[in-house]
Design brief:
Layout lengths: L8 H5 L23 H13 L3 E3 L10 E8 L3 H13 L5 E4 L11 H12 L3 E6 L7 H16 L6 E3 L4 H4 L14 H4 L3 E4 L14 H4 L4 E5 L2 H4 L5 H23 L1 H9 L1
Parallel strand pairs: 1-2, 2-3, 2-7, 3-4, 4-5, 6-7
The structure holds zinc ion (ZN).
Length: 267
């Protein structure tokens, strides 16, 4: 059965009494991470050494020794490719979720489509990271994004993850207009869930938690930006990412605006 048939999800949201499914983030703001590609590699190797099998969202995971590795790409597709290449070297596969319509990046440029296809060709799954706040009708918005995704990548949407989901989405165990989602009980509540959202392990640590000690299956969500960007804290990483983005934007301006190109070349 579908989550909602014809009614608009947003109008339903107002009638939902918020239910807290996870503890609140204990400490937002500046957070020392020590996150790097090397640290990420070490984490993956710990799972491999313990005998965990890397599986995708196409079936219900077993209760023991399986890991669903998921990446939500909120800011940059190049960062996703860096992690995809690293995982390929480590001989593991994961699932990458991309925002189709975002101010962070343009999903549809030839360069970005090429990167997404490269990630797919490395053996990973790719799909939609859906931001429901863009639409007055979730159903119409999701249909539009599924069509765009198919048109640009020639792939079907087999699983969806939600961008900054509210409790309405976190607490729904039904398919999302016919498509399974990463917060369904079998992926989110029936097994351990670990996330680096906000740039830290604020709830639990992937390899220091009891679940890991007990070989319990888990879904592990990461955002590649935290692992591939310079800086000791989440704030420093964002600062260096913005600095780099500004340089790239300047190159883009130079390609499209002669006076800026001349100005940059002289300075
Ligand atoms: Zn997101």
């Amino acid at each position: 059965m579908e989550l909602v048939d014809t009614r608009d999800l947003k109008s339903l949201d107002r009638n939902i009494v918020p239910v807290q499914v996870r503890p609140r983030v204990p400490c937002l703001g500046m957070h020392i991470l020590n996150f790097s590609k090397l640290k990420y590699k070490n984490l993956i190797e710990q799972f491999k050494d313990k005998g965990y099998k890397f599986v995708d969202f196409s079936r219900t995971p077993n209760q023991k020794k399986e890991i669903l590795l998921r990446h939500d790409i909120d800011f940059d597709i190049g960062k996703a490719l860096e992690i995809a290449l690293l995982e390929n070297q480590l001989n593991v596969a994961s699932t990458y979720f991309f925002l189709i319509r975002s101010d962070s990046y343009n999903f549809s440029t030839p360069e970005n489509i090429k990167k997404i296809k490269e990630i797919y060709n490395l053996g990973h799954k790719v799909s939609i990271h859906f931001d429901s706040t863009l639409y007055s009708s979730a159903k119409a918005g999701f249909t539009l994004e599924k069509n765009l995704f198919k048109l640009l990548t020639n792939l079907n949407t087999e699983i969806v993850s939600f961008h900054r989901p509210n409790n309405f989405y976190l607490d729904n165990n039904d398919d999302f207009f016919g498509v399974p989602h990463t917060y369904q009980d079998r992926f989110f509540k029936d097994i351990k869930y670990i996330s680096d959202s906000g740039g830290g392990f604020f709830y639990d640590h992937p390899t220091k938690c009891d679940a890991f000690k007990n070989f319990d299956s888990m879904q592990f969500l990461t955002h590649p930006i935290w692992w591939t960007t310079k800086g000791d804290t989440n704030i420093e990483k964002i600062q260096s990412f913005l600095k780099e983005s500004s340089k790239n934007y300047s190159v883009h301006f130079a390609k499209n605006c002669k006076p800026w190109k001349e100005f940059v070349n002289k300075s």
